[in-house]
Amino acid sequence: MPGEWQIEERHAAADALHGSWPAVDADPTVRRIARCRPTAAAVVLGSTQRLDVVDAEAARTAGIHIVRRRSGGGAVLVTPDDPVWIDLWVPTGDDRWSSDVTGAFGWVGAAWGAALARLGLEGVDVQGSGPGACTRWSSLVCFGGVGAGEVSVGGRKVVGLAQRRNRSGAWFHTACVRHWDAALLLELLDLSPGERAAASDGLSGAVTGVADVSVAAGRAAPSGDDIAAALVASLP
Q1: pLDDT confidence band for 88 (50 / 70 / 90)
Q2: pLDDT at position 3 over 70
Q3: Domain locations along the chain
Q4: pTM above 0.70, yes or no
Q5: What is the C-alpha separation between 212 and 109, in angstroms, rounded?
Q6: Cα distances (Å, whole numbers) of residue 10 to 27, 34, 38, 78, 187
Q7: DSSP of 105-121, one letter per residue?
Q8: Domain 6-234 sits in CATH 3.30.930.10
Q9: In this structure, how many other beta carbons lie within 10 angstroms of the beta carbon of residue 94?
Q10: Which of 24, 46, 102, 204 makes a 20 to 30 Å CA pair with 160?
């Protein structure tokens, strides 16, 4: 790897992946990147979301865990394969470090934009520090709105970002959708049938997946490993 980036793969339950990063705890002075693969599907809620936005009985029936992360944003459904979940750690004082919380997303988004371009995607756009396009569902579902540094292809979001930090550095959660299908996530949320139908319609035009875009353009769908390798190759 260029520079001091250290790479690892992490396999654990989603709550453990969000709860701590043992390598960072052991030495927070080193830049790190981790491909995170949850061992089971989970709905991950943002730090300010109430637990009752999820239909607990529906989640229990589907065998899907409910997890809360310490970073902001809306709900995300994570599975072992989709989205491609990659975490980044930058220590305080590093060249990539910024005290500007919003501005700190800039280089992360730029790296993801470059990675998707490497995969042959066209119409890649990285959101600047201002607000991007949002749907009425953005406070509920992470991919319903576009925040600083997040990446869209053809006007539809494909990469979501979140961040948490302490005195030692900044921990970035990044998620790149391969195949977008909001149906299961919406079935797990506590919505009326009318709200669920409206959310499905709104999100279908706001989000897409890298594999979906590739296949629509007549190219082979990149695997999760392809996507992760492209990001690693695009890191500053």
Answers
A1: very high
A2: no
A3: 6-234
A4: yes
A5: 20
A6: 16, 6, 8, 14, 28
A7: HHHHHHHHHHHHHHTT-
A8: yes
A9: 16
A10: 24
